[in-house]
Amino acid sequence: MTLPPVDARRARGLVSRLSGLHVLVVGDVMLDRFVVGRVSRISPEAPVPVVQFQGEHAQLGGAANVAHNLAALGGRVSLVGVVGTDAAAERLRDELAASGIAVDGLVEDARRRTTEKVRIVTERNQQVARVDYEHDADVDGDVEGQIVERIAQLGSDAKVLLVSDYLKGAVTNAVVQSLVAMKASGAPLLVDPKIPHLDCYAGATLVTPNQHEAEAATDRRIRTDDEARDAAIDFRRRARCEAVLITRGEHGMWLSSGDAEGAIPALAREVSDVTGAGDTVVATLALALAAGATMTEAAVLANHAAGVVVGKFGPSTVTPQELLNTFR
Questions:
Q1: pLDDT value at position 328?
Q2: In angstroms, what CA-CA distances link 137 with 129, 143, 257?
Q3: Disulfide-capable partner of 120 in 69, 85, 128, 264 (CB 3.0 to 4.6 Å)?
Q4: Which CATH superfamily is 8-325 part of?
């Protein structure tokens, strides 16, 4: 079964209401740094390319990229996460501030380093290598307590609550349960998950695994729409959530909720880079639901937004106009 599309008029109405809607994002913030150079030869020391440095730049990653996507669509964002006391944390704050995102929700932990992914890429955007700097142990004690406090302080009037879990330590059971408690006031809780934390998400409104994650959680192979439907139903039961949206790359998405069950076909797009596409999906879902979209409408808008960002390199965002252009 294929879910109905959203027509251009309805899309315009929803997108026009995105501006200023408040979303609380809680999760693993990262800095994505790109070292760019030209490759013209292979090293005589080992069979690896020699990259002649040309420049570098930084982008927001992880939960920070979710926040960036929300801000690019016009939303008002509160971001809660954990950083170290290092240069990467300062650069992350600078990038957030440049995107109009407040940094008062970032909790410092002197025992860990800020999560930073350094990608070495060619001038043609081909990735040569990636170096990860991280400390991914779960937060605890005072740091965990500060995260829960920031959630209470910054999320009281949020229209949607959103968890961006990358297994880097900021998302613990206590953190998620504080959000589940806030959900009782009426704000839906969305989770972009990691399967080892699946039991933590009980009570969430919507969980958005990719196909690989859905297969791992349900011990099912997904190759057809029927298999996606069965896996989605199992996933909902396993995660004890109200709805699930499985993202399936070139095969689109599968939505399973109390009101809708069906496929959302992928848009025909030239794919440049899928990095951060899941961040765009969950951000668009959150703002669309805050704007009054049904679950199906929000998923369709998120599908269109993903079709835009996969044509860009690195963690990227979509603007309201870019999103509307896909409905023409």
A1: 78
A2: 24, 12, 33
A3: 128
A4: Ribokinase (3.40.1190.20)
Domain ranges of the chain: 8-325
The pTM of the whole model exceeds 0.90: yes
Q: Compute mean pLDDT per 10 residues along the chain, 328 residues long, and list them.
A: 91 96 98 94 94 94 96 97 97 97 97 96 91 96 98 96 98 98 95 96 97 97 96 97 95 93 84 74 97 96 92 82 92
Instruction: DSSP for 269-326, please give it.
Output: ---S--TTHHHHHHHHHHHHHHTT--HHHHHHHHHHHHHHHTTSSSS----HHHHHHT
Q: Which residues are catalytic?
A: 279
Tokens representing residue 169 in the block: 């330590």
